[in-house]
């Protein structure tokens, strides 16, 4: 005879696996969107170079953070999203600098 505890444990493991599959699907979407975001950052870096703008744009970064944080449902989500997006912004800034350095017109002749 199977105990209720064993059945509950099996159900809990199944639920855990369902949530993990959902996270995996979200991670797949996030990675695709982050790659698309980096492609946009390349284009932005190119335009900034043409018009003489710096990569670092503090006001724009504040705007991005405010836009993202407005979608959070709780103080804990706001705190966590802010940390995540500060990292995304920092890495995107580094990416733009590296992309800019890799362009042929930025190498000495």
Topology of this protein?
Layout: H1 4-51, H2 58-69, H3 75-102
Helix pairs in contact: 1-3, 2-3
Write up what this structure looks like.
- It is elongated, with a radius of gyration of 21 Å.
- The chain has a single domain (4-106), classed as Up-down Bundle (Chorismate Mutase Domain, subunit A).
- The chain is built from three helices and no strands.
- The protein is mainly alpha-helical and 109 residues long.
- It has helices at residues 4-51, 58-69, 75-102.
What features would you highlight for this structure?
109 residues; Chorismate Mutase Domain, subunit A; 3 helices; 81% helix
Q: What's the CATH topology name?
A: Chorismate Mutase Domain, subunit A
CATH class: Mainly Alpha
As a whole number of angstroms, the C-alpha radius of gyration is 21 Å
Major β-sheet, in short? none
Number of helices: 3
The parts where pLDDT drops under 50 for at least 5 residues are: none
User: What series of H and E elements makes up the topology?
Assistant: HHH
Q: What is the CATH H-level superfamily?
A: Chorismate mutase
- Please give the CATH architecture: Up-down Bundle
Describe the structure concisely for a colleague.
By secondary structure, the chain is mainly alpha-helical.
